[in-house]
Amino acid sequence: MASVSSHLAMFPGSFDPITFGHLDVIRRGRALFDEVLVAVGRNPGKDPLFTLDERVSMVRRLVEQLERDEPEGSPVRVESFGGLTIEFARQNKVSALLRGIRNLSDLQSEIQQALTNRQVGGLETVFVVAGQDFAYTSSSLIRQIAAMGSNLEALESMVPPLVLEELRRKRADHHPVLERLVEGDAMQDEA
Fold first, then answer.
1. Is residue 46 annotated as a catalytic residue, yes or no?
2. CA 14 to chain CA mean position, Å
3. pTM (2 decimals)?
4. Domain positions in the chain
5. Which residues, at least 6 apart from 90, have a Cβ–Cβ distance to it below 8 Å?
6. Is 139 one of the catalytic residues?
């Protein structure tokens, strides 16, 4: 990988939806790098609750708020991408990938991905350990609670108010992803 004059970290993910844990990783990245690129990706293997445009919009709004509330950190930009993470990183002259680790399961899969990214693309990965409040928060867990939980206020400690409102809207609209989660749970109960 070519040398760089400034250090740009890319934090890739689907952010479906973005959580306080994701924002914690962005906050930490702002303290470590000259700039952070939050790369909101399309994963063809996943059935997203939020469209790519909705996810990018939520991330941008929350990052803007973070930068207003904490102006001393490095700048953050938010972009969407499709295809391979490593190719998008090359196009943007990224110096390192930024990843959050919540637990040992994350560590195992993230190390495998980091080794592949280094081997294939010559790109290093920097890990930050999640704060203890975020160790068990995941977007998939949030989608499950949004689909099956009776009280969405239970998510207040996991997602920002903006995301909570969007989850309420998806639930009121009977979004197919949430409906499938409910149906899948009902089928497991019958088995």
1. yes
2. 5
3. 0.91
4. 8-133, 139-190
5. 121, 123
6. yes
Catalytic residue among 27, 95, 99, 139: 139
- CB-CB contact of 13 with 79 (8 Å): no
Contact present, 159 and 17 (Cβ < 8 Å)? yes
The verdict on whether 77 is a catalytic residue reads no
Measured at the CA of 52, the angle between CA 47 and CA 57, to 5 degrees, comes to 135
Q: How many CA atoms lie within 13 A of 126 on its CB side?
A: 19
> pLDDT tens across 69-90, in order?
999 999 999 999 999 999 999 9
Residue 1, SS3? coil
Catalytic-role residue among 102, 143, 170, 175: 102
Taking only the tens place, the pLDDT of each residue in 10-53 is: 999 999 999 999 999 999 999 999 999 999 999 888 889 999 99
> 8-133 in CATH: which number?
3.40.50.620
Q: Specify whether the CB–CB gap between 96 and 124 falls below 8 A.
A: yes
